[in-house]
Amino acid sequence: MQQYAEPTPVRTGRASAVADGAITIGEALEATAQTVGHKAVDQSDASAIQAAEVRATGSNVMAPGGLAAKAQSAAAYNADCSRDEDKVKLGDVLSGATAKLAADKAVTLQDAEGVASAEMRNNPDATATPGGVAASVAAAARINENVK
């Protein structure tokens, strides 16, 4: 009779940086697409998305075709677009965010603070969008604090 051993699963790639049950930055961005996906992308959204991508990937370089680049392009397009129905929406940019990020990690309170700062700094009213990028990242960070 032969013996068979079951291989032990090893986490590689993105999953290795994420604790079991922790919410990632990509997942928080996808939650934004679900909650306020109908909202047109503006500069504060684009800045928050860029801050989130920088924190997820650990790179300050905006990748061509990445989430931040698409968000910046959408915000510029929307600024010149007169009809709301023609504007690019958050859902268009953020759907499938986890797969679009070059790397991902569990959200921390520091990540949430950085994303919120970027969003508010680039909003003329100096506020964050309810249910927006900063709110979703902050909610994920609070949940992750309880996962530790």
Number of domains: 1
* Head-to-tail CA distance between termini: 44 Å
Overall mean confidence score, pLDDT: 88
SSE class = mainly alpha
Low-confidence sequence ranges: 4-16
Secondary-structure element series = HHHHHHH
Shape: globular
Report the biggest beta sheet as strand number plus sense, adding barrel if it closes.
none
Query: What is the oligomeric state here?
Result: single chain
Radius of gyration: 17 Å
How many E strands? Answer: 0
What is the helix tally?
7
Share of residues in helices: 40-55%
Task: Provide keyphrases for this structure.
single chain, 148 residues, mainly alpha, 7 helices, 53% helix, globular
